[in-house]
Amino acid sequence: MHDLSLRQQSLREPLIFTIGRRGRRAPTQSPAPTAAATEAGRAIPAHLRRSVAPALPEVSELQVVRHFTRLSQLNFSIDTHFYPLGSCTMKYNPKACNSYAMLPEFLGRHPLAPESHSQGHLACLFELQEMLEDITGMQGVSLTPMAGAQGEFAGVAMIRAYHRARGDLARNQIIVPEAAHGTNPATATMCGCEVREVPCDINGDVDLDALRAVVGPHTAGIMLTNPSTLGVFERKIEAVARIVHEAGGLLYYDGANLNAILGKVRPGDMGFDVIHMNLHKTFSTPHGGGGPGSGAVGVGARLLPFLPIPMVGCEGGRYRWLDEQDRPQSIGRLSAFMGNAGVNLRAYVYMRLLGRDGMVRVAEFAALNANYLLRRLLAAGFDAAYPMRRASHEFIITLKRQNRDYQVTAMDVAKRLLDYGFHAPTTYFPLLVPECLLIEPTETESKEDLDRFCEAMIEILREMRDEPQKLSGAPFTMPVRRLDDVRAAKQLDLRVKPAS
Amino acid sequence: MSFIPHTNEDVAEMLSVIGASRVDELFDEIPSTLVAAALQRVPPALSEMEIGRLMSERASLDGRPLCFLGAGAYEHHIPAPVWAIATRGEFYSAYTPYQAEASQGTLQVIYEYQSMMCALTGMEVSNASLYDGASALAEACLTAVRANRASTSRRILVPRTINPTYRQVAQTIAGNQNVVLESVDFDRSQGRTLVDALLPHAGSDYAAVVVQQPNYFGVLEEVDALVDWAHANDMLVIAVVNPLSLAVLKPPGEWGTPAAAKRGADIVCGEGQPLGVPLSSGGPYFGFMTTRMQYVRQMPGRIVGRTVDADGREGFTLTLQAREQHIRRSKANSNICTNQGLTVTAATIYLSLLGAEGLARVAEASMARTRELVTALTAVRGVHAVFTGEGFHEAVLGFDRPVAPLLAALAQRGIQGGVDLSEHFPELGPCLLVCATETKTSDDIARYAQAVDELQNPAALARGAA
Question: Contact A150/B319, CB-based, under 8 Å?
Fold first, then answer.
């Protein structure tokens, strides 16, 4: 125990504000003062000038490098750990994607550079648009949304714009399944729509009778994930599409689970009118500790005029931006320039590395890994939420029985997995499955790693019976034990307050 | 090609555990009518060497021109440690820090970032960042409408000296929730927003006024007078600022005259790109937002707090999540999930390396280079400074003929001469918004001025040849 606490001690890093000394600097990183610079500073009228310097760190370059390197070592990441986080597609982010997106010409390119200085960059983006159209079965793609949630916003805003353009002003309701990602209803609200929820049946498909009861002249559209957030393919998707379309609504595809079906089935063929893709999931751009993502949107014929700008067009072999003049019905701009252009470049490199056959293999091996892991966990004594169904690229384990028998929670298992060196699966989502773990291994994990994860889960199952304190107290090996979230929210400490 | 580790033997063993004979069987719940045909427009795979060659060729097509563009994205020196550390796999390939115990690195970085942004802006609380400066303004408008209890209005006053693209983005996003943005004109000679232009709106109900400092033209607004007026009329103040400028300019938390009843902007937002984030064609950057503690529950986006663990030791965790989409669903403040974690990491490293002193040196050097640029260009016949107001590191230059042909000719010489303002500000006549940062040398500026001289006044070319 003593050794463990020593190790934890070594895993702590003081705040950077406490490291430095007054007057210490990294002098090579800023220009030497000149008379002209001093004069420029003095030219600021006194009432617009800063009087007290901001309380920023005063540290050497080595202190900065060591501090942030040590902080990085306190993280789990794909590069260091198996990360079976359901619905998040934490697969290997190829190093090549980063290297080639960071070529100096791409990094240094100003977003307002003239088209004559942009042909290389625009060629990549144009081809990316085309590849994404092909994979999703859509007729147009805009790369400008900066994250999945912004893609969702663009999608629902386009649905609203479509109805408005037809003079159909009553359609202000968005239908979502009760198991939907929280972003779906939040997006509907951001677009000024009301949310109507529909339940799923016992096997995880949308309840069609409930859907029929809720559609009508106020229906703007429905937002669906397929495979659904329950980890299973929505088998009645054609009927869902028929019901919604006949009621005058449109279908929105939440691309969170696109990895499961790459090259196998296309959202456009399922009847969807609009899709957002999470390039940081399916196309392996980094999650970066919470962003930047990129949330490209694709649409069928009906929504083409409304895509957000700018997009990339090609005329006679020259690429150019399409803006307000070219696309007067567009829902408009979502970012100051061109979305997360550097993330889009990474997705482009990824898709070219995989090629058309590689895309299909992604879905196949994601499904193989998920179904294998599910079977092994069932054999070990865990329960599936939907035992009669195939897993897609992910599946749900419910710990309802273990919770009843041993009072353990999904949170306990998640935290204990950290001690075994595995990132926790997604917990308590979807909300309607009690004590659930949503597990997505992804295609880039080897069988040995899946087996090791299973062995840890089997050991945790044994601990539930024999050493329950190892679960309730976990984690023990991380830089911190379980954190007091209630205190964090009640006694707000959101910044270092200057001494003064 | 792909990054799949499975051997044929692995596949056979795994299928036998599953009880399937072929991988295809795993897709047997997909209706057969829907099974996709082969992809047409995704080309066959390339090796890393091949895609490397292609990307290098594409990059060299775009070249490395001499850039005098600004307008919301600025070329600054980025210290080598910034991205060497930010692209470490432990930062680069980590997820959002929901599992706090396995994410203390990311969480502490964000806490330090929040502290630094509060220090720079002079505000009490910061979120973990938003997508970019323009979308941050959109979220700030929605926050102001929620936060201003003295107002029932969804109208916001937006001076025309705000970056016009920011206004468009705010319209796209906030307009869907019936927020109305109303324009306020600027003074033609000074290039800034005067209180006189606000007076017609006095006594009307508005949720907020937006003030950009330095404004889109690079000119310094008289922020004290604008803030006093807004507060006297029960409006909140949304400040849009360049964080680098705050090394030398008065922080928004101190805007307003000392005698006024209420001091400081209420919500501060802007573009974080100048803090160590490469231009990268427009993104990924990050938007920031800081505010008063009283509005913290109205703020969108992630927030990190310091707390204690089960042993009473200090640690960091996401907090106030009851504002967010994954908890509150349709009642959330915003649908935003991510912040821009990686670029925020870069900015936190940048701010640590530069410190207050280094940041002020970058700001003053940039101001000096822009003054030098304006002096050099206005020495050319047919070029003049458009506004008299004091500026930061951008300026508007007027020309005696349309600037589009000039920009095209400069581009041919490898010079990006500035942003043509004729689309958004036709009443100003032919003019360019130009920018020079600390990255420009006197030689760079001389090269630009000489090119303009030769293109504007072909006689100069003949003189040069003689």
Answer: no
